[in-house]
Amino acid sequence: MPHLAKVVLNCQTGMHDGLETLIQSFIRDGVTFVAVTGKDASLIEDVIDELCVGDGSEPYSMLTSSHPDDSLATVVAFAESLDLEFSGPVEVIEF
User: Fold this and answer.
1) d(CA 84, CA 45)
2) Could you report the per-residue pLDDT of 68-78, keeping only the tens digit for each?
3) Cα torsion angle, 65, 69, 73, 74, sign
């Protein structure tokens, strides 16, 4: 099943293997926004940005944000508040 265009990545255990594969699936499915909350949120956001840029020859445009000190509910509400090209439902993924 494809991912929704807006994703909240809830990182309870922090950075671990599988992030690159997950981000590749986001790109394949056309995800346009990822908010990261929880442990290592800022680091994970940086890695997502790097994966989207790649070698620079074909960067993928994805808006990201990190919320290391916010609750999951707060981050979901933030993601839901985005409109215009970022409107639509939010998918929460436990990572």
Assistant:
1) 22
2) 999 999 999 99
3) negative
With a CB cutoff of 8 Å and minimum separation 6, the contacts of 83 are none
91 and 4 in contact (C-beta within 8 Å)?
yes
For the chain, counts of helices (H) and of strands (E): 3, 4
Of 27, 32, 6, 14, nearest to 94 (Cα)?
A: 14
Model pTM score: 0.94
Torsion on CA atoms 32, 43, 51, 81, rounded to nearest 10: 0
Q: Name all contacts of 49-57 with Cβ < 8 Å and 24+ positions apart.
A: 51/19, 51/20, 51/23, 51/24, 52/23, 52/27
Mind listing the pLDDT tens digit for each residue in 26-47? 999 999 999 999 999 999 999 9
Cβ neighbours around 68 below 10 Å, total: 15
